[in-house]
Amino acid sequence: MAVSASVVDVDVADSAVEAGRFVSLSVDGAGWMLRIDGIGEVEIGFGVWAESAPTGRPVCAMGAWQGDAFVAHLYVVTSPHRVDLVVDPRTGTATLRWHTVPLTTSDLALHLRHPLMTRPDVS
Fold first, then answer.
1. Is 122 within a domain?
2. Structure confidence by residue, pLDDT tens digits, 64-94
3. How many independent structural domains does the chain possess?
4. Using CA atoms, how far apart are residues 76 and 58, in angstroms rounded to an integer?
5. DSSP secondary-structure letter at 103?
6. Residue 44: CB partners within 8 Å, gap ≥ 6?
7. Tens of pLDDT along 23-64?
8. 122 bridge partner residues
9. Residue 11 sits in a domain of what CATH number?
10. Can you give the residue range of the structural domain that contains 66?
11. pTM to 2 decimal places
């Protein structure tokens, strides 16, 4: 099963991605593969944590279907932060929200980039 959605949670202060990013979710072995425009592919485990590094820094993820929606938690391994993902195929929407918004930037792509550059303005 494959699901595609546009990220539409731009009015939420804790959004981890910017408006209009395309998100897709597909079955991949014993879990799922999440693809986010501008970030890459994140493996999501079912019942186990799956680790991937779409742009160099590791992220662990686990998720499952809850009713009609797919729900997952993505942990940025090298930080205390996590992103909550909800994909609703009925509405064609997805949300990626920080559980606790990082102090530097809410852009998930910057937190997954290696080397870490959450403040490019002071590099």
1. no
2. 999 999 999 999 888 888 999 999 888 888 8
3. 1
4. 6
5. S
6. 25, 31, 32, 33, 34, 50, 61, 62, 63, 72, 74
7. 889 988 889 999 988 889 999 999 999 999 888 888 999 999
8. none
9. 2.40.128
10. 2-114
11. 0.83
